[in-house]
Design goal:
This protein is α/β, with parallel strands linked by helices. The protein is built from 25 helices and 17 strands. It has a seven-stranded mixed beta sheet, sandwiched between helices. Strand 2, helix 6 and strand 3 form a beta-alpha-beta unit. The longest helix is centred in the first third of the chain and has 19 residues. It is elongated, with a radius of gyration of 27 Å. The chain starts with 19 loop residues before the first helix and ends with a helix.
Length: about 625
């Protein structure tokens, strides 16, 4: 296999042009086989195989720097830079990351995980290059979906001022995760399909090439000068108007043409954008047919494309999807907003049932939040469905545009807590901390699927900003016998005894249930409270617990700093200094990729870890005192 000959980036340069299609096929087959076992981002990686090969052919890596926007499409880059063996443990704890990581390889120039960042990062590297008098190329690869993010335009505006070479590769596949929306998508479509330009270029090229002796050299000369022709035929010329030279569109699956264009781009003495057309999912029929479903996949059967693990029960996302549609059917003021994630957040169902009340703003979380604020100010009931990790990108808008005005925007925060295999950039472990700092924000978390439904009913009628956070994966079905009415700022007593009290929030209520069972089996009495609200915290419930308990254990799937536990501890220490508090939460750190169960155990928030901690910090002392 040709792929076995690739030990470092320069090895691909030893191949002939005739080898390129063979290598591309081997890479696709390798990726399909490996990702079918480990899970990962498939469709995006299949789409950039030839583009990545061309980048490694045209540039001198790792001296030259490639910055991958988001980075989930960097698998071929990892293969070509000598990391083939790492794919056996892709996205597993201690194994190779599914994203670029500087700590993993010198070929990874910048850590990425969120969208619309690569041009800014690349521009910064290019500016550092000039200040330090160094000589290397900087290439930022960005998708057309990422161009819906405002940060990309801020960077483009700044890049136009650069007087040295800086290459932006626009990977245009008409997709972000779901299909792209909005004006930029339409603009790029018009560039792709402008027949007058494409036909003229083909016709002139054919005519010149037919001239004996000098024809091919004349054709190549026109290729180098085609930007002047393009000014008349490509509509808008947005990038040229900004001061950025535009090259393309280029067939993203034609390696020689890509290499030729990238080498041309290297000669431009300012910012240049290479527009590359690719097909997401190319080479694997199920991914080509449904690229959104194969954006990020669990292990699957290659023959059918179906996941190996069958779902037994609905996920929290599916519970949200069904309930928000039910509520919207009863209340025409309810609208739904997503930032390029209708599938991931469960809003696809809503978009089909209520198309006039559904808004996909593209990869633009800040805009999503403020547009929702505008809707709320005009009398609607907007629901912003977003992953916890991506909500960070709209933080100023939450503070300034929603909460300052006390507007009734409901944030449905999916993937809250440990997410797993996508690692540091995608763990949803900060939202309680950063939202609780904002005056006027209410934060809730359900203990099970039925409580999520009840919280959504409460939330769409709440007269102020409110966030409901819930985890990825199957919705918990236990504790169904407990369904106290939803009351603002009030926790729910599940089991009341004495001695030890567990004050748990959201996903940690089920963990608390298991801790209680294990303590009871050892002869200890134990109270379990479902906190329900991270903000406002139910201090009346804490008063009640402190009157007949020696130990309060707070439990949350969020970082310790700024979370529920710190707030509860401060209150208890001020009013009940005799009561001991143990805070079970995540450390003040970034959490790497890995299986969620393994991460919970490693970080000390699973039931066995909590029991061991109680033995060290409380139960052992109790035995000595007795």
């Amino acid at each position: 296999m040709l792929l076995d000959q690739i030990k470092q980036s320069s090895d691909i340069k030893k191949l002939t042009e005739e080898d390129y299609p063979v290598l591309a096929q081997e890479i696709r087959q390798f990726l399909i086989e490996k990702i079918s076992h480990t899970g990962g981002h498939l469709a995006s990686n299949l789409g950039v195989v030839e583009l990545t090969m061309a980048l490694h052919l045209a540039f001198d890596l790792p001296k030259d720097k490639i910055i991958w926007d988001v980075g989930h499409q960097a698998y071929t880059h990892k293969l070509l830079s000598g990391r083939k063996a790492g794919f056996d443990e892709l996205r597993q704890f201690g194994g190779m990351s599914g994203f670029p990581k500087r700590a993993e390889s010198p070929y990874d120039a910048f850590d990425t995980g969120h969208s619309s960042t690569s041009i800014s990062a690349g521009l910064g590297i290019a500016q550092a290059r000039e200040i330090q008098g160094e000589d290397y190329s900087v290439i930022s690869v960005i998708g057309d979906g990422a161009l819906t993010g405002g940060m990309a335009y801020e960077a483009l505006n700044n890049a136009a001022q650069l007087k040295k070479n800086f290459i932006i590769v626009l990977n245009d596949n008409k997709m972000s995760i779901s299909e792209n929306v909005g004006g930029m998508s339409r603009y790029l479509s018009s560039v792709r399909t402008k027949e007058s330009y494409a036909e003229l270029k083909k016709g002139v090229d054919r005519a010149l090439s037919a001239i004996p002796v000098v024809g091919k050299s004349l054709s190549y000369g026109l290729y180098l000068a085609k930007n002047g022709v393009k000014q008349f035929f490509v509509p808008g010329m947005l990038f040229e108007d900004m001061g950025i030279t535009y090259l393309g569109p280029v067939d993203g699956h034609n390696v020689p043409e890509l290499v030729r264009t990238l080498k041309e781009a290297k000669r431009v003495r300012h910012a240049v954008l290479v527009h590359v057309i690719t097909k997401k999912g190319k080479g694997y029929a199920p991914a080509e047919k449904n690229p959104a479903r194969f954006h990020g996949v669990d292990p699957f059967d290659i023959a059918t494309g179906q996941p190996l693990k069958k779902k037994q029960y609905p996920s929290y996302t599916e519970v949200f999807s069904k309930k928000i549609c039910e509520l919207a059917g009863e209340d025409k003021k309810i609208v739904a907003v997503t930032a390029a994630m209708p599938d991931g957040t469960g809003l696809t169902r809503f978009s089909k049932k209520f198309p006039d009340r559904f808004f996909d703003v593209g990869i633009a979380e800040a805009h999503a939040v403020t547009s929702a604020a505008g809707m709320a100010s005009a009398g609607l009931k907007p629901v912003v469905a977003v992953y916890s990790s991506f909500l960070q990108r709209g933080y100023d808008q939450i503070l300034h545009d929603v909460c300052l005005q006390k507007l009734p925007v409901l944030f449905a925060i999916d993937r809250a807590g440990l997410v797993g295999s996508d690692g540091e950039t995608h763990q949803g472990i900060f939202d309680i901390s950063f939202l609780s700092l904002v005056p006027g924000m209410t934060i809730m978390a359900p203990k099970n699927r039925w409580e999520l439904e009840a919280m959504l009913e409460f939330g769409v009628n709440f007269e102020g900003p409110l966030a409901i956070r819930y985890p990825r994966g199957e919705a918990y079905r236990g504790l169904s016998e407990f369904a106290a009415p939803m009351e603002y700022g009030k926790a729910e007593m599940l089991y009341e005894e004495s001695g030890i009290a567990l004050f748990a929030l959201g996903s940690m209520v089920s963990t608390g249930e298991h801790v209680r069972e294990k303590l009871k089996a050892r002869g200890y009495s134990c109270t379990l409270v479902n906190a329900r609200f991270a903000k406002p915290m139910d201090t009346d419930m804490l008063d009640r617990l402190c009157r007949n308990h020696d130990l309060i254990v707070t439990m949350e799937e969020n970082v310790l700093r700024g979370g529920l536990g710190m707030c509860a501890t401060r209150y208890i220490h001020e009013h009940y200094p005799q009561v001991k508090v143990i805070q079970v939460a995540l450390p003040d750190a970034y959490v790497e990729h890995g299986n969620v169960s393994l991460l919970r155990e490693m970080l000390g928030i699973d039931s066995d870890s909590v029991i061991r901690r109680l033995e060290r910090e409380y139960l052992g002392k109790e035995r000595l005192d007795s």
